[in-house]
């Protein structure tokens, strides 16, 4: 039975890199560092076509056929091409404009050594890996020569390279399970701590037991790991295969840090996609995903079960049909997945199908928050959780809000720290706002505002959810934006819950703000006490004196406004005209006279004369004394 499409949480990229498949006249190579596919026809004599992740990185050229090409790679930026045709040397061709295009060659320095391969660590730095060690060179394209910077003698069975970290891993000893890493940076080579891979069975007599096919290096959550695919072994009493992750720090010892339980046996392939370890099982044609940052409650700290049930990759309709010839190439790197000769895809994680496959919403949120394109999926999950409208789901809602606001708070603190440091002119990298940062505006726009308008949901549950979100923000010491309080007030008013509104304001559940006070003022016709609640709030703010005066004058409470402005010490600087105009509009001449006299007395005290200054905002009316 075919799985429904929404159940596929893995898919291939829409536009694969297409190249001529491997054949007797065409060799295909993949360069992990530059993500480039090389199609070499007739040793390069009839053409070399290089294709990268996008069309702009495509290159085509010819080179002399000097024998079968064993390996071919560009340096970073396509500046220098390196080609290995023999086990003793590597040839180079300049692709820098105005530099000589003639080939030049470099033999390995170690006598009787065979070159197993090479790795570019910079645009002009290259490492030869031989069966007797490694040789680190600097390339001088203008002089068409190389300079040996450093070398290290060590017996090598095979090697792996991680371009993101410029670390080469060498398999040493007879059994091959002692691994020696080297790090390269800016012309320097550093020997890192060697470590041992625990084999399921120790062979007797000793023989090479660790294959390069069972080892991969990858950067996960910014840390370098060596992944060991440990197969099922009857004699070791291990019921199924597992992937063992060894954490490889720049300094210090490499330690076994995570074990991924595959719960099956057979042939596997590994990928890293969006910091997830993806394990493909050949016989069942399904894939499993693991997140090493998710802790399993019922397992040992660093033992992980698959996050989701096994699923196949979403079927891909081939745009063209062609003969299937399997190229004799090593496995593609962790982040790229090939499914057919002549096509190369990126593997992608689809987040929407995971929502229904992972029932634990707290765990689902932990999973989503670590993914690259997670924002809209997270917001849809929040809406989905609220759809039930049952009070029993409030603890789940609270958990989700807390997880979102923890990430939100960490970002705000990083931003604040960056601002403080930047003011001190110290160099610091600005924090990146990832899609995992769900702020109040996001929640208001995409979840809460539409949620409050749903007629079928109990208003008590709506208010409980809004207050839960505000509680979470306060708990994480995040200043609550006024529009969230407004949403609460509007919901309370809509259901005539004025008593609850009064309590929320009286006990400061809703924090004071000018916008909130203005909203309360607008509710006066519906709820008369809102006027006084608004004034009390403005007084508590102590920075809203002008607003309070305006409110009182608009209500024709001119003497009240005058008394208030005196109480806060602002009487000497206030505009007389504003008060006199308001008094005149009441039609009460006695009131106008009282206000007028008040300002005359102020003028007398300040300037020694009751007269208003020329140009002062005096109202265009006759003085009461003139009448």
TrEMBL record:
Residues 617-627 have a biased composition (Basic and acidic residues). Residues 371-613 form the Mic1 domain. Residues 28-146 form the Regulator of MON1-CCZ1 complex N-terminal domain. GO terms for biological process: regulation of autophagy. Residues 606-627 are annotated as: Disordered. Pfam families: RMC1_C (PF07035), RMC1_N (PF21029). GO terms for cellular component: late endosome membrane; lysosomal membrane; Mon1-Ccz1 complex. This is Mic1 domain-containing protein.
């Amino acid at each position: 039975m075919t799985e429904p499409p929404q159940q596929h949480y893995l898919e291939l990229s829409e536009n694969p890199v297409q190249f001529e498949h491997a054949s007797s006249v065409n060799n295909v190579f993949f360069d992990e560092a530059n993500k480039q596919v090389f199609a070499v026809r007739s040793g390069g004599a009839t053409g070399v076509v290089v294709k990268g992740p996008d069309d702009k990185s495509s290159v085509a050229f010819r080179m002399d056929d000097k024998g079968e090409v064993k390996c071919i790679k560009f340096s970073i930026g396509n500046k220098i091409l390196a080609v290995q045709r023999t086990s003793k040397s590597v040839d180079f061709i300049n692709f820098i404009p105005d530099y000589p295009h003639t080939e030049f060659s470099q033999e390995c320095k170690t006598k009787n050594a065979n070159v197993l391969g090479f790795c570019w660590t910079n645009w002009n730095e290259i490492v030869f890996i031989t069966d007797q060690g490694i040789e680190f060179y600097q390339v001088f394209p203008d002089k068409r020569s190389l300079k040996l910077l450093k070398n290290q003698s060590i017996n090598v069975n095979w090697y792996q390279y991680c371009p993101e970290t410029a670390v080469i891993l060498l398999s040493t000893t007879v059994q091959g399970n002692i691994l020696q890493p080297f790090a390269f940076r800016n012309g320097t080579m550093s020997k890192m701590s060697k470590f041992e891979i625990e084999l399921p069975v120790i062979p007797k007599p000793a023989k090479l037991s660790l294959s390069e096919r069972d080892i991969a290096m990858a950067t996960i959550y910014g840390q370098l790991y060596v992944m060991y695919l440990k197969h099922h072994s009857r004699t070791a009493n291990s019921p199924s295969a597992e992937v063992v992750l060894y954490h490889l720090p720049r300094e210090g010892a490499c330690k076994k840090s995570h074990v991924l339980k595959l719960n099956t046996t057979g042939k596997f392939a590994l990928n890293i996609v969006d910091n997830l370890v993806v394990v493909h099982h050949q016989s069942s044609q399904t894939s499993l995903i693991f997140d090493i940052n998710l802790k399993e409650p019922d397992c040992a700290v660093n033992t992980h079960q698959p996050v989701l049930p096994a699923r196949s990759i979403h079927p891909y309709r081939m745009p063209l049909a062609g003969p299937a010839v399997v190229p004799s190439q090593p496995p593609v790197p962790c982040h790229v997945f090939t499914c057919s000769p002549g096509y190369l895809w990126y593997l992608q994680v689809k987040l929407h199908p995971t929502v229904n496959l992972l029932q634990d919403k707290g765990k689902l949120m932990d999973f989503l928050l670590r993914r690259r394109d997670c924002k809209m999926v997270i917001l849809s999950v929040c809406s989905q959780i609220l759809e039930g409208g049952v009070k029993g789901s409030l603890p789940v809602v609270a958990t989700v809000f807390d997880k979102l606001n923890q990430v939100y708070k960490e970002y705000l603190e990083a931003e604040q720290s960056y601002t403080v440091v930047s003011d001190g002119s110290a160099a610091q990298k600005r924090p990146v706002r990832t899609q995992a940062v769900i702020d109040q505006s996001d929640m208001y726009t995409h979840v809460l505002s539409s949620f409050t308008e749903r007629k079928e949901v109990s208003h008590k549950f709506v208010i409980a959810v809004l207050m839960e979100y505000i509680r979470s923000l306060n708990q994480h010491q995040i200043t609550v934006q006024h529009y969230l309080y407004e949403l609460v007030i509007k919901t309370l008013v809509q259901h005539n819950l004025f008593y609850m509104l009064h309590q929320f304001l009286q006990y400061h559940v809703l924090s004071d703000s000018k916008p909130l006070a203005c909203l309360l003022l607008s509710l006066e016709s519906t709820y008369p006490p809102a006027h006084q609640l608004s004034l009390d709030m403005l007084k508590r703010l102590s920075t809203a004196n002008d607003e309070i005066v305006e409110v009182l004058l608009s209500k024709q409470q001119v003497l009240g406004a005058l008394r208030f402005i005196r109480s806060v010490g602002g009487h000497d600087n206030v505009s007389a005209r504003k008060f006199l105009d308001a008094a005149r509009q009441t039609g009460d001449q006695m009131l106008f006279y009282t206000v007028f006299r008040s300002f005359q007395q102020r003028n007398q005290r300040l300037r020694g004369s009751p007269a208003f200054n020329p140009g002062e905002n005096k109202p265009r009316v006759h003085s009461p004394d003139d009448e």
